[in-house]
Amino acid sequence: MTADANNEYPKASNATLIGATITYIAGLFLLLSFAGPYWIQSYPEMFSSFKHMGLWEYCFDRFRFPAYQYDKYFDGCHYIFGSVKMCFREWLLPGWLMAVQSFVTLGLMFSFTSQALLACVIIRMPLRTVLRYEWIFVSAAFILVALSSLFLFLAVSIFGGNCYRRDWLLYPSFNVLSWSYAFAVIAFILFGLAAILLFLESRKLYELRLEAKNLVAQMQHSQPEHALHQLRDQLHQQQLGYYRH
């Protein structure tokens, strides 16, 4: 009896489940893109001293920076904010790349927050809060997912438009966009699809909430009149009993 009673509450709709699933998949692509060191790489047959880079890492093979006053080779993969790259960090990290890092980081943060909200809606935890404010949960998740899609669109657009600049990496014609960048593009598209589904679902939930409020208001208006009729009937019965006695 208790188990059946606990399962009588309404479950999450199919649109919410599909939107949440797409959001989780997009979040996985975004996480791999965020951590992956392959936003751009050089063609292997070119034997370039630059190998590949991500948002937070550069990889070189006997790379010599022309403006560096000492004749030194840079090998291996290094964190972009590490001490090894300090001598030419301004060249490795131009303003447009910092903007890309910021947009991807914000998109990742908003993605995780929206996934937490959608998880609460799906598992109905906490139950009373979710059932009462489900439209707010879904609306907030829609806004966060839409912002994630927008920020990723800005990130891939800025990176794609600036990654072949000649004042950044040497010999840009030797390089090609790689799988980490492609994952960011896929995540941006998936977040957009999920945002559409969540928007439609949030609007539907809001309309159902308005209908429920209108029904409650109608019941409240009709309830005093119904109670008055009941009180009149009780008084009438009491008067009849009094006169009979």
Shape: elongated
CATH top level class name: Mainly Alpha
Poorly predicted runs of 5 or more residues: 1-5, 238-245
- Percent helix, as a range, is 55-70%
Query: Which strands sit side by side, in order, in the main sheet?
Result: 4-3-2-1-5
What's the gyration radius in Å? 30 Å
CATH architecture: Up-down Bundle
Average pLDDT rating: 82
Report the CATH topology name.
Butyryl-CoA Dehydrogenase, subunit A, domain 3
Number of continuous helical runs: 7
Beta strand count: 5
- Encode the helix/strand succession as letters: HHEEEEHHHHEH
State the separation between the terminal residues, measured CA to CA. 49 Å
Strand content: 5-15%
Return the structural class: alpha+beta
Largest sheet: 5 strands, antiparallel
Number of separate domains:
1
Subcellular location: Membrane
Keywords: Membrane, Transmembrane, Transmembrane helix
Pfam families: Claudin_2
Transmembrane segments: 17-40, 96-123, 135-159, 179-200
Describe this entry's structure for a reader:
- With 245 residues, the chain is an alpha+beta fold.
- It has a single domain, classed as Butyryl-CoA Dehydrogenase, subunit A, domain 3 (Up-down Bundle).
- It has helices at residues 2-6, 14-35, 89-92, 95-123, 127-132, 134-162, 179-244; strands spanning 40-42, 50-53, 57-63, 74-79, 175-177.
- Strands 4-3-2-1-5 form a five-stranded antiparallel β-sheet.
- β2 and β3 form a beta hairpin.
- It starts with a helix and ends with a helix.
